[in-house]
Amino acid sequence: MAAVGMLLFYLSLFASCGSAELQSKNGNATTKGELGLVKRNDIDVISQLRQKKLKTFGEWDVGEDSPYLYFVEETDGGDRLQVINSNYEILYEKTLPEISRVYGITALRKPYDQLVFEYHEGGNDYFVQMLDLVSGKVSEQIYSAKADNTFSANIVIQPQFRSGVDPAKEPFEVLLTDFGLPSAAGKYTKVLRYKEGMYRLIGEFDRAKAAEFIENNLNRR
User: Which of 44, 86, 158, 178 is deepest in the core (most CB within 10 A)?
Assistant: First the structure.
């Protein structure tokens, strides 16, 4: 069993309160007596993971170098996201006040997913970041220096359907809507598109006007 697969196997074991008979990834039962086959390095890492307060974890399939393992751990300094490879090397790490969601999406139209995480830094706004494998390194793909990656009402990562664009080939766009839904303030949506190797803010639109346009142009059944 690959090292990352082994790691996930044991994480599942600890989450299920240490059952006497375990289920491996291929469906075969494994007894505790067989765990001696695990390498010393595996046992050390697993022992450390048992002490962690994990919020979520999973595999990130990035092709030939796969799979990577990601997990979010609750720490005294906030939620820490780590991405590691099969040699337990940390490829990416970030600690934030709160990480609310982590999920994969094929936004860049590559043969594998990018890894998206949404996070909170206090106040009313949430933020979004996307990770991709670039030249063998895990790299952030959303420009965030000017807080262009904030939203408070809604986030959508979707194909582009503009004229002259092939949605099957063009990278997805990221739509970030500001202001909470109960707010009387207008709802504006920022549009981020992939440009010069990164998602960047290109503009925003009035969500109410867009909704009115859609309503007026619906094909009624």
Answer: 178
Q: Give the Cα separation of 203 and 216 in Å (integer).
A: 24
> Burial of 108 by CB count in 10 Å (0-12 exposed, 13-18 middle, 19+ buried)?
middle
The Cα–Cα gap between 179 and 108 comes to 28
How far is it, in rounded angstroms, from Cα 221 to Cα 215?
Answer: 13
> Using an 8 Å Cβ cutoff, are 62 and 73 in contact?
no
Reading the block at residue 111, the tokens are 């043969």
Q: What is the CATH number of the domain that holds 125?
A: 2.40.128
Domain count, the chain: 1
What the block records as the tokens of 102 is: 């982590």
pLDDT tens across 175-184, in order?
A: 999 875 566 6
129 within domain boundaries: yes
Q: Residue 51 corresponds to which tokens in the numbers above? A: 């002490």
Instruction: Give per-residue pLDDT as tens, 88-108.
Output: 889 999 999 999 999 999 999
**Residue 121, in any domain of the structure:** yes
Closest CA to 133 of 118, 149, 115, 145: 115
- Give the closest residue to 86 by CA, choosing from 196, 3, 173, 210: 3
